[in-house]
Amino acid sequence: MTKANRHRSRVLGFLFALLLTLFPVSPVMAGMLDTGALIHAATAGAERAELVQRLGSPDVRDALTRMGVDPADAETRVARLTDAEIADLNDRLDQLPAGAGALEVAVIVFLILVVTDLIGFTNIFAFVRPAR
């Protein structure tokens, strides 16, 4: 073996060792999937889309605008809600009488906006002081 070949094999060995140390192998963990969790995950997107559709109605948009809330901000807030909050909100909206839900939806969205202002996620209302 020539001197150049030995040098090349040492460099390649060093690079291989360096590659192994820079990219550690992480174990892959597998677990059982709960049927309820899979069903919940599948319906969560539909419930979120339903709520966004309700917020897109002209009555709700007008009510939000009258209260000084940008409808785009309301949709952004809905996107940030957890799946459980979306399901709870949709359940409450489904219990409202037909034709009388626009004001209630606007109030619920307003309350969500106030709560997110209190938490400090947003700064929409000047009268809300975030808790720090």
Structure description:
The protein is elongated, with a radius of gyration of 27 Å. With 132 residues, it is mainly alpha-helical. Helix 2 (35-55) runs antiparallel to helix 4 and helix 2 crosses helix 5. The longest helix is centred in the middle third of the chain and has 21 residues, at 35-55. It is built from 6 helices and no strands. The protein has helices spanning 3-22, 35-55, 58-66, 71-80, 83-94, 101-119. It has a domain at 42-119. The termini are far apart. The mean pLDDT is 78.
Overview features:
132 residues, mainly alpha, 69% helix
Compressed to H and E, one letter per element, the order equals: HHHHHH
User: Beta fraction of the residues?
Assistant: under 5%
Cα-based radius of gyration, to the nearest Å: 27 Å
Question: Roughly what percent helix?
Answer: 55-70%
Report the sheet with the most strands, covering strand number, pairing sense and barrel closure. none
Which stretches are low in confidence, meaning pLDDT under 50 for 5 or more residues running? none
The geometry reads as elongated
The chain-level mean pLDDT equals: 78
Annotation, overall tally of beta strands: 0
Which structural class fits the helix and strand makeup?
A: mainly alpha
Q: In DSSP terms, counting alpha (H) and pi (I) runs of 4 or more, how many helices?
A: 6
In whole angstroms, the N-to-C terminal distance is 70 Å
